[in-house]
Specification:
Layout (H helix, E strand, L loop, with lengths): L2 H19 L6 E7 L7 E7 L8 E5 L13 H9 L3 E5 L9 H18 L5 E6 L1 H11 L10 E7 L13 H4 L22 E6 L8 H12 L4 E6 L6 H4 L10 H17 L3
Parallel strand pairs: 3-4, 3-5, 5-6, 6-7, 7-8
Antiparallel strand pairs: 1-2, 2-4
């Protein structure tokens, strides 16, 4: 890892500790469940203490370039979504180089299937950041991956790499191997007219995952006859878009307001369908 990237990662870890420390709402309870035998086959459930039928559910998939991240690092995301009235689920999954992408995607498939099986009412939205957005887009678009793909009401992707072939990082060629599986890592290869609505968010200053990824997926999904929209935020980089969901920025977070509006509007549109 380059020195600059190492320093950035250290500062991000320190920042996560701070924003998670203040993410301690009393409105929900935190429960941990397992979906497999590996220590990383776990997910957290942030459930409101007062049970209201048909409350929207968010399954949040974090990023980390498929090689870092942990569910407890994103308590601040759950805290903010819970403040809007949603129940939130955050799964862990195995990471590279312990496993390759096929197994990472396999973990997420099982986790999301298990989470959805535990949900008896309310719309379900997949929300992801960075690599988690790529995973969420694949689950939303590729009907072969989940047991009940029709239960997904909508997808929100933040700073996601959706059209990343040919790969730009050396380790990606091994991560996504074997070569015949490369097309299966590209959400743009699975656009379809009957997919749930896609809402693709990107920072204009994102240097890690260029905003052209979200533009490409939106255009291809629309060309296929599907529903997709996109918003680009001025002055926002790759990590800014996810940090903007923290309690520190909650009252003025345009990203949080936009996600809330998308979920509310999509939920209203799909009622009775």
């Amino acid at each position: 890892m380059k020195y600059k990237e190492f320093i950035q990662d250290l500062s991000q870890i320190a920042g996560l500790k701070v924003i998670n420390t203040i993410a301690r709402s009393a409105d929900y309870v935190l429960r941990e469940r397992s979906y497999g035998n590996n220590p990383r086959h776990r997910y957290d459930c942030y459930l409101h203490k007062i049970n209201i039928g048909n409350r929207p559910k968010i399954i949040f998939l974090y990023g980390g370039n498929w090689r870092s991240g942990a569910r407890r690092d994103y308590r601040f995301v759950a805290d903010s979504f819970c403040s809007l009235g949603f129940d939130v689920f955050i799964p862990d999954y195995r990471l590279y180089p312990e496993v390759r992408f096929g197994q990472i995607l396999g973990d997420i498939r099982v986790a999301v299937d298990d989470i959805m099986a535990s949900i008896t009412d309310g719309p379900i939205f997949l929300v992801g950041h960075s690599a988690g957005a790529q995973l969420g887009a694949l689950l939303t678009l590729n009907e072969r991956l989940l047991q009940s793909p029709q239960r997904i009401t909508g997808f929100v992707g933040m700073a996601g790499p959706y059209d990343l072939f040919p790969y730009t990082e050396d380790f990606h060629w091994e991560l996504f191997a074997p070569a015949e599986k490369y097309p299966e890592s590209q959400p743009v290869n699975f656009v379809r007219p009957d997919a749930p609505p896609l809402y693709l968010l990107h920072g204009k200053e994102d240097k890690r995952v260029r905003r052209g990824h979200s533009k490409s997926l939106m255009e291809k999904q629309r060309d296929a006859g599907g529903e997709a929209s996109r918003k680009v935020y001025n002055g926002m980089g790759h990590t800014d878009i996810i940090v903007s969901l923290s309690r520190i920025y909650r009252g003025k977070s345009e990203v949080l307001r936009d996600i809330n509006h998308f979920i509310s509007a999509t939920e209203e549109t799909t009622k009775g369908v």
